[in-house]
Design goal:
- There is one protein chain.
- The protein is of the alpha/beta class.
- The protein has a single domain, classed as 3-Layer(aba) Sandwich (Rossmann fold), CATH 3.40.50.1010.
- The protein has 6 helices and 8 strands; from the N terminus they run βααββαββαβαβαβ.
- Strands 1, 2, 3, 4, 5, 6, 7 and 8 form an 8-stranded mixed sheet that branches.
- Strand 6, helix 5 and strand 7 form a beta-alpha-beta unit.
C-alpha cells in the first residue's frame, strides 16, 4: 500500500560562525541570534531540518590552545540547542596578523561526508565564501541541492554561481530572530586580540 504522504526533504545547515558574526554586526548592528529559530526559518515548513553545524575558531596563545571564558559560555549555550553541533578550528598570530585554521576544511568535509552518507537532500551554507566551491560541486554530483545564504555584499561570485539557490539575507530577514534582551548571551569574537587597549567585541 502506497503512502499518500510525501516525504519531506531533509535539510542540513552549515554555518561559518565568524563570517556570520561580522556580517550581522555590519548589516544589523547586532549579532545575538537565536540559531534554532534561524535554522527553522531557512528550512521552511515544507522541509525537515535534520541538523545545524556551527563552525568557529578557538584561540591559540603561546603555542597552547585556550578558550576564553566568554567564548566558553557562548559555546555552552549553543550546545544546549537540539540538533546543533559545534566544531572548532583554531586561530593564531602569524607575522602580526590573525589567521584562521581548519574552519573551511571542517565545513567542506562535513558537507561532503554527510552527502555521501545521504544524511540530507539539501545543504544550506551560511557563508558567501568562494572557498567552498569545490565541495559544493562535489555534493551536487551526488545529486544534492546546495543553497547559499548570505548578504548580497558578502557573497562571492564563485559561491553564487555554484549554488542551486542563493538566499539573499537582509536586515528584515532577522526580525523576530534576535534573543530577548533579558536572555542575551555574549559571544566572544575570536578574531580580535585580548588587551586592555583592544577589548574583545562581544555579542550584545
Amino acid at each position: 500500500m502506497f503512502s499518500i504522504f510525501k516525504r519531506k526533504k531533509k535539510v542540513m545547515i552549515f554555518i561559518d560562525g565568524s563570517n556570520l558574526y561580522h556580517v550581522l554586526l555590519k548589516n544589523c548592528g547586532r549579532s545575538d541570534l537565536m540559531f534554532s529559530s534561524f535554522g527553522k526559518k531557512l528550512t521552511g515548513k515544507d522541509r525537515e531540518l535534520k541538523k545545524i553545524f556551527y563552525y568557529n575558531v578557538k584561540q591559540e596563545l603561546q603555542g597552547k590552545i585556550k578558550i576564553p571564558e566568554e567564548q566558553k559560555k557562548f559555546l555552552k549555550s549553543l550546545e544546549k540547542i537540539d540538533n546543533l553541533e559545534v566544531k572548532l578550528g583554531i586561530w593564531k598570530e602569524q607575522n602580526g596578523s590573525i589567521v584562521e585554521k581548519g574552519v573551511d576544511v571542517l565545513l567542506a568535509t562535513d558537507l561532503v561526508l554527510n552527502s555521501v552518507k545521504n544524511k540530507y537532500d539539501t545543504a544550506i551554507i551560511v557563508s558567501g565564501d568562494g572557498d567552498f566551491f569545490p565541495a559544493i560541486e562535489a555534493v551536487k554530483k551526488e545529486g544534492k541541492v546546495v543553497e547559499v545564504a548570505a548578504f548580497e555584499s558578502n557573497i562571492s561570485k564563485e559561491a553564487s554561481d555554484s549554488a542551486d539557490k542563493v538566499i539573499k539575507l537582509r536586515k528584515s530577514f532577522f526580525n523576530n530572530l534576535w534573543m530577548p534582551k533579558k536572555n542575551n548571551k555574549r559571544n566572544y569574537n575570536p578574531t580580535r586580540k585580548n588587551s586592555s587597549n583592544n577589548k574583545r567585541k562581544l555579542l550584545v
